[in-house]
Every structure is written in structure tokens, then in C-alpha cells.
Specification:
The protein is an alpha/beta fold. About 25% of the residues lie in helices and about 20% in strands. It contains 17 helices and 31 strands. An eight-stranded parallel barrel has the order 12-13-16-19-20-21-22-23. A six-stranded antiparallel sheet has the order 24-25-26-31-28-29. Helix 3 crosses helix 9, helix 5 packs parallel to helix 6 and helix 15 packs parallel to helix 17. The chain is globular and about 85 Å long. The two termini are about 45 Å apart. About 50% of the residues are buried.
Length: about 750
Amino acid sequence: MAGKKKSSTKTKAQDKPVSLPPASDDAANGAAPASSSPAPQGNFEGPPTKNPASSYLTGSDPEISGDGTDVIKSDGYLEPHREYFGQRFAHFKRWVRDIELSEGGIEKFSRGYEDFGLHITPAGVRYREWAPGAREASLVGDFNNWDVAANPMARNDYGVWEVVVPNGADGQVPIPHGSHIKVTFVTSNGQRVYRLPAWSRYVTQDLSKSPIYEAVFYNPPQRYKFKHQRVVPSDDLCIYEAHVGISSPEGRVATFKEFTQNVLPMIKDLGYNAVQLMAVMEHAYYASFGYQVTSFFAPSSRYGEPDDLRELLDTAHGMGIAVFLDVVHSHACNNVDDGLNQFDGTDHCYFHEGERGRHELWNSRLFNYGHHEVTRFLLSNLRYWIEEFGFDGFRFDGVTSMMYKHHGIAYGFSGHYDEYFTGNTDEEAVVYLMLANYMCHKLYPGFVTIAEDVSGMPALCRPVHEGGVGFDYRLTMSVPDMWIKMLKETRDEDWDMTHIAHQLTNRRYQERAITYCESHDQALVGDKTLAFWLMDKQMYTHMSDLTPLTPVVDRGIALHKLIRLVTCGLGGEGYLTFEGNEFGHPEWLDFPREGNGSSFHYARRQFNLVHDEMLRYKYLYRFDRAMVRLERRFHWLSAHDQWVTLKHNDDKVLAFERGGLAWIFNFHPCNSYADYRIGVAWAGKYTVVLCSDDPEFLGHGRVDPAVEHFSTPMEWNGRPNYIQVYLPARTAIVLQHD
């Protein structure tokens, strides 16, 4: 996550099916049933008091039975840091133990959303909130004419406030659906403040009245009922990254329902088996791209109601598509009136106090991951999105900022291990990530977690029980940077095949990675999409089939296909694209803000371009579809047979084997090669299964797909056999063997 997209928030504003958990009667009414658990215990500091025979203490839980140093077995360079890993794992085990003893286990602890916030009970609406710094508290809203004396709250020993608003005489729920509510506190200095409930599930904004969001009691008479089972994400992840609000050609905010009706069918047609949704958690400032979260439990009302999001996920599951949520637990919006900042009138509460609790570049607040109640809030937030909406995975944003006390600010990681395991590391944050991964994988087998990290932290994607942080994948953030840098600074004839191969294969051993050519980061204002870097202004004038195929457009379309194919083929164990880029979306991405006159012109995806049969965008769409569907057929992303056969800088030829396929790329701008010899592992007949030069993809048809290639048993390029192929300029060929 680039810092530039963290805009300062202004206070003015496949697929194995698993059953969904059965909904309780209270859940069907929009609330969880009243909890029978004891009052929250606050920050656990005392000795163990309950359940001493727990499996967490006896070590029978395989997740924590070791000492956290098994990661060293797969990376001997970690040996000097054995003590660090042991201490970190012991810290993690203490957390699990304390949660077990004080709360009854992480499964129960992470259901805080069933205890906190507003819930319908047989007696009325119960509201519970943690605000240890407040002297007084009341629930106010339309239902009691905002009378601070009508529904005062009682405080327990741990700073948790509670009130039950009794049902009416006729037994009706006392707070009407859709009415506005707030909690008001009297702070330690005697000041009365008004806040949105921290566990709000629906908040709305009426710009005709105020830019400040208002909490809404969400209890519709009819709730969406899931029709489909959740899916366990595939081991061959092809992820379609999307932002619901920009998912329309029109200059406005698109909706969950429009995404369900218009975008999901396209994702299915392309063959992607997962969609990653950005900016779902409510954020006051639209131009923050969703990275300045104000209400962590509320789906953004810009796109519709919470049930509309449920319908989106349910529809995707019916298509066999997993849905991932972009989770922002790295920081929180600085807003006070509609955020968590100064929630109970103190500088801290959910955050560290003083400088440690502030991110100087993002103008945001930093969570206190070492606090019991903050950890309850964050882990419960994860459970909420899974249980209430059915998400199948999380992409954790800003992991680098979380894991280091310097937050990566003005810090260049060289890869030396001392950078990761010394005083620079924020162990509280790392252990929180271990707890989050442990919980997700323990409670939801097959659940996927992805880390956005630029530091290259070793063992980030090794299992928790080995001593790793527990993520399933990390993002290969250097790969899109490489492509942009090459397009900006290097002539085609100077492209370095060795450098490309190194960057695409430079991954930590036994740690899976999601690779991509460009995500939302590369399209943000100040940069451009790959297609726009390649073709620039000619995308405005020469993308019609009725216009001549200029050298610029011919080159741009050819390289767009090659870049995507080599990245998907060689770059990782998963693949990602940002919506629209699969068909060469032009220009860049910029949200309405003061600096652009609040324009939506660049905050949209022009899907109309690919649907227009007179335009050339359809060729790139077809190629992307063919590439993704080919992966679904051969599963190279989960294959272990990767071998780079040839890196020829003079010829600009790169060849490798993966997934039982032979991949050959000729990046040369003008040289074509007849009978080009490529070493291969397998003897026999080879046939073309994908060629970027196919006329279906606006290629020149120089490769005959019907030609069969037979291997010769002679060592070449370090392989026992070779084949000879015709290799046109700026062309990629993928061959299967019989």
C-alpha cells in the first residue's frame, strides 16, 4: 500500500463447499443473541484463574506445541535469531493462554460483535461499549429525542458501559429501524462528547446536512437469506481486485447491486476464481481509497445496505468465486466525530498515546495491539466479516507499517536479517498478526490470508506453529515496480532477460506469493496503467478497428500480452489483476477531491470499451481470458516444477518450464527466429496451447497452431531434449507435450 493513497482524512468530512453456520433467531432479526458469558475482563494482567487443564496449557494443540523455531529448518540463515523466534512464540502462547483463561478461548473471545454494540434481546435493545476513560455514558438518538438522561449506562470494573432500552408496552423493539443513534460520554475533564458506537454496523452520510457520518440502527423487517455455501479458495488463486464504487463507466459511485449484476458475470467469464474487494469498511473520505477507516464493522453505505453486500458474496459463491476483503488493521482514521479517535475523550483508548499512536505520513491513529480489549475488537472484526457476510479470505493492508516501529518511513530494506529481528520490530503488532492468522486458519480451514509487505520479512508466510507469522501469501510488490520502471526508463532493445527472470523468481523459499503486473497502486494519480504507458495518447485515437494499426498500438498490445503472461507464468503461486487492466484500461485512477474539482471522471472503470466490438480492447480481454482459463486447466500456479531454461539478452528470448508446459517469450522488437532451439525436459510431441500472436488477440498470425514439434534427444540449455520453433518478434508461445 503506497503512502500516497493514504490521503489525509478531513474531519469535514474450488471450490470445496462448506456449510454456512446456522443463523439464530436473533441473528435473523439483525442482532446476535444476548451473551451468557461473564462481563469482559479488560486487559488481562493477573494470574490464571480458570480452566487450568486447558489444551492450550498442556500443549496438546498442535498449533502451539513447539517452541517457534521450526522455521529455522527451512532457512538456516535464521539460526542466529533462534532466541528471537523462541521469545516471539512464547509471547504468542501467552496471549492464547490468557485468552483461554480469561475468556474461554479464542473462538469465544473473537465473537465480541455478539456482546458489544447494539443487540435485540427479549427484554429490549442492549447496548454495550468499552470506554474506560469516560465518567458517564448515555445512549441517545431519535428514539429518545436525544435526551441524555433517558437511557444512562452503567459501568463495570473494566470500563465497559451497558444499558438495556426496554421494549414498548406492546413488546415492540424500542428503537425503530433506520433511526439515528449515538453514544454520549462525559469525559474525565467534565466535557460532554458525542460519538458513533464503535461497533456500528451501518452508518450513513447526508451531505446536504453535514459531511459527518451518522450511526443507523439497522433492523430491516426482511433480512437477506444466503442461498449458496461458502467456497474454500483454490490453491491456484487468480484474483480479480476490485473497488465497488468505481465499477461503472458512469461518473458516480456504483453500488453493490450493480457490481453483482454487471461485474461478477464478467469475472466468471474471464475465469478468475477469487475477487478481492477494496474499500468495503466504512471510510469518511472517499478519496482515501478506503484506507482511512472510520467504522470497522460497517460496510460502506455509499454502495448500498449491508444486505446488498451479502447478496454480492452469495452470488459470487454461487458462481464458485471466493471473495476476499481488504482489511485495514494497520491504522485508523484520525476523525473524532465519526471515527475511533479520542473515542472516550482520552488520547488513547484503542490506540497508543502520544507519538507512538500516530502515523506521521498518513495522519492516522495506530492501534495498541498489546491491549486485551483492542485485540478483542480487531479479532472480532475479522470474525464479523466472515460470519455475517461469508468472506473467504483477507488481504491485510499496510503490514509493513504494522511490523516495524519506524513503519517503513524513510527506511530502505536491504534484506539483511538484522533489519527484521532487532529493536526495529514491533513485536506486539507481529504477535497480533500471528493471533489473527491462527484464528482464521484454526476456525476456518482453507481460509486465505494475504500480506501486503514491502520489507521481505522472513517467515511471514510460514505457519504459526512453526514460528512464522502465518500468512498464506505475500504480494510481490517489486514486480509491478519493475515493469513500470522498465517502460519509463529502458528502450525495448535494452530489456534485460536475466533481470526479468530474477525479479519474477525472487521469492522466499517455501513462502507463497501473489504476483501481478499492476494493481490499484500503479493506476493511481501520478502514475498510469500499463496500457497507457505503452500507448499513451494513441489510445484516444487509434483503438478502433476502423483506424490503422499504428506501430505504437501494435507494440503496446503485443507487450501488454507478454508482460501479463510472463508474470502469471513465472512470477508467483497466485496471480492478481486490478479491474479493467485486463483489457488495457486507459489513463489513471483519481477519486473526486478538492484538487480535481470533485470530478468522478477518473474514478470509474470504462467497461463499455471492452463491450464495443469496434474497439481493440476486446483483443486484450480475450487474451486475458485465454490465459486465466489455461491456468485453470494446467494449474501451474500450484505446480512445483519451475525451471528457467534460457535467458538470452541478445536475442531477447526467455524460456522456462512450469506446470508441465514449455513457455517461450521473444521480447525482441524486430527480430524473428526460425527453428529456434529450446531445451526441454520432456521427450515427445509438443503442440501450441496459447500464442500471443493469434489473430484472435490482434496478433499477426505468424505461428501456425496446427504445427507439431517433436523433441530431439540431445542436451540443450541444460535439458535432456530440445525442440525447434518459429519465434516471431514480440511473441509468446506456450506448448504442452504428449
